[in-house]
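Hi team,

Below is the intake form for Rhomboid family intramembrane serine protease from Brumimicrobium salinarum. Please confirm the fields before the structure is written into the shared record.

FORM ID: S-0412
PROTEIN: Rhomboid family intramembrane serine protease
ORGANISM: Brumimicrobium salinarum
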Amino acid sequence: MNNILGNMPPVVKNLLLLNVVMFIIKFLGEAQGFPITYLLGGYVFNSPYFEPYQIVTHFFMHGDFFHILFNMFALVIFGSALEQVWGPKRFFIFYMTTAFGAFFLHQIVGYIEVKHIEDQLVSAGYDLFILQEKIASLRSGSIDTFNIIANTNGLVQDYMVGISTPVVGASGAVYGVLVGFGYLFPNTRLMLLFPPIPIKAKYLVTIMVGIAVYNSFLSNPGDNIAHLAHLGGAIVGFILVWIWQKDKKRFY
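The structure came back. Fields below:
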């Protein structure tokens, strides 16, 4: 373990440790009844549960073991390569900028959607303040949002989900890292696990971003993955690496 951590560049190593520590705190805290995900996850800006600190805390939170496993695996594998090329300072700027960019794209779109629902509810005669109080009474402390959500009408259900479902995870920043790696190392061959075939980085990144774009335009109530955050991180990551590399011709 010491050798593995010792061989990691410093920013990747500290990000990995911080994410793991926060995941352990979340796991232990929620086992004792503390709604850590609800406190530190990021809500849309017009949610009564939004707090400014969530802009940072949300990307150190993860939903489950496989969520953090994928993100940290990608961070270590692809982020280490970028940090070795750019150095710690530039990589840290890149990581944080893509994380913020992912959050803002996801939340701005969420804000617009929630505002549209609010207008419809007001037109239908609902008092938003009373409705928010009722929604608050249904919060169960689980990331699955509500325990009786199926018993409400569609518009109220959409509003409940919109204001009370926090976005968590480093996936937006990780997609930025993937795009950065694909841009700098386009011809590097990677071995997939499922199926176990080699693929060049530029094709893998194109496929993953394409999936994020496709899913961003779907409306699937059962899908709690923040595809817009993935897309936002990818877009910001591409812009940054393009600006930094536009006068250079060195690719790998």
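SUMMARY LINE: The longest helix spans residues 88-123.

Thanks, M.
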